[in-house]
Specification:
Strand order of the largest sheet: 5-2-1-6
InterPro entries: Ribosomal_uL13, Ribosomal_uL13_bac-type, Ribosomal_uL13_sf
Keywords: Ribonucleoprotein, Ribosomal protein
GO molecular function, one term: mRNA binding
Helix content: 25-40%
Structural class: alpha/beta
Family: Belongs to the universal ribosomal protein uL13 family.
Order of helices and strands: HEHEHEEHHHEHEH
Strand content: 15-25%
Organism: Cardiocondyla obscurior
Length: 178
């Protein structure tokens, strides 16, 4: 086997580390993308019974965005296996307790219900902010593209860009709004 083919062969079977920035992203739509990398669906050697998935590091899970009023209406169920141990927690309460839990539950729900589900979740690493351990940062070699761009706050736009923005109407200097 040539050196080039050996490298290609190794690259196919290696576990790659990916990074995903969850800032302003919907966790349920993001979970579908993260699932592809955790299970290795994008690899040519993928098979549902083959465990060929990669590691995914999710940062900024504290700044996720849910649609509409889902923060107040989405409910998460938990049962502690004791009689009367069923609890329902609102999304904002759960996010306040642990900012990584909503992303974790979304990815867990998106994975197929089989025996590999828990092993696949062990390759998911979620952090509430951008502080990732140095040993994990050394392994990361790919960045997963976000679903939608993060909007720039108006107070962060430079003044020269605001001045150069095309105007539809040029008001006179002595114009007064009523």
């Amino acid at each position: 086997m040539s050196l080039a083919r050996r490298g290609q062969h190794w690259g196919t079977f290696a576990r790659i580390w990916h990074m995903f920035d969850a800032k302003w992203q919907d966790p349920y739509q993001s979970a579908e993308i993260i699932k592809r990398y955790l299970m290795g669906i994008y690899k040519p050697i993928y098979h549902p019974l083959n465990e060929c998935g990669d590691h995914v590091v999710v940062i900024n899970s504290k700044e996720i965005a849910l649609r509409g009023d889902e923060w107040r209406k989405r409910v998460y169920f938990h049962h502690n296996t004791y009689h009367g141990g069923a609890t329902w927690t609102l999304a904002w309460e759960l996010h306040h307790k642990d900012p990584t839990l909503i992303v974790e539950k979304a990815v867990y729900r998106s994975l197929p219900k089989n025996l590999q589900r828990r092993h696949t979740m062990q390759r998911l690493h979620i952090f509430p902010n951008e502080q990732v351990p140095e040993d994990m940062l050394k392994n990361i070699s790919n960045q997963i593209k976000q679903l939608r761009p993060v909007p720039v706050p108006l107070d962060n736009i430079p003044q020269n860009e605001i001045d150069n923005f095309p105007q539809l109407v040029k008001y006179p200097e002595n114009f007064i709004l009523k």
